[in-house]
Amino acid sequence: LRERVYLCGPCSSALDVAHHLACMGGLDAWDSVLVTRQWAGRGQMRRVWISDPGNLFAAWRLPFPPEPWRNMISVLVGWILCRGLRALSLPLQLKWPNDLLLHGRKVGGILVEERGEVLVAGIGLNLSSSPPDAMMRTDHVVSAGTLGSPATRLSIVELWIRLVNFGRLCYESTLSDSTLLEFSQTIEPVLAYLGAMVQIVDNRSSVRGLFRGLSPDGGIVLHTQDGTRTLHSGSLFPEDTSDGYT
């Protein structure tokens, strides 16, 4: 392993430690931070990420990709993690734009932060425990779950090093060998709810449609009653309906 992995005890968040190290010149591209517990872990839209000991909390500094790939970074990291964990016989799916699901339950999440010249992906994986529904926000989409075995047969450090080694190769080969259009099609087998009726909800609106795939700029493509729409932000809610249209 050429890249450095910093091990840290309880802290506000792995992302905070990573950005501090980067400002001090101690975190190069591909270096990462692995922490035992976070008291201010955060997810999408600054939501609280419950960070119990025994799970994986990491921050991974990435090199900046070419400009056209900037909006695809969260999806790219999610795809890398799905592939890396599928190698352990864990059939993960990516719920657009940054949640990881196993058997329909949320087992992980990704938060990409860019501060100046520093690009860091915060990654949380529920290895051995997950919050009960009562502790989750009232509008949660799916219940939480854990990766469990075989992921827990590895130590947290062993699992993370394995993911970092695989992730770097996957990241570099994807950017060098694929166009954005090719990547948006390649990722389809791991997309949760592809082909199903979904709603994309943000603070201002809700759009309902058939989930057709991803656009080359990282947006979600829906076939709605008013035609095809591409959305770039919001939360995805699956619908349990059978009255969809094609």
Brief summary of the model shown:
The protein is an alpha+beta fold and 246 residues long.
Structural summary, described in words:
The chain is an alpha+beta fold. It is built from four helices and twelve strands, in the order βαββαββββααβββββ. The strands form two sheets. The chain has a seven-stranded mixed sheet, with helices on both faces. Strands 11-10-9-8-12 form a five-stranded antiparallel sheet, with no helix packed on it. A hairpin with a 4-residue loop joins strand 8 and strand 9. Helix 2 crosses helix 3. The radius of gyration is 18 Å and the shape is globular.
- How is the largest sheet built, in terms of strand order? 1-2-3-7-6-5-4
- Percent of residues in β-strands: 25-35%
The percentage helix is: 10-25%
Low-confidence runs: 241-246
Q: Please provide the ordered H/E string of secondary-structure elements.
A: EHEEHEEEEHHEEEEE
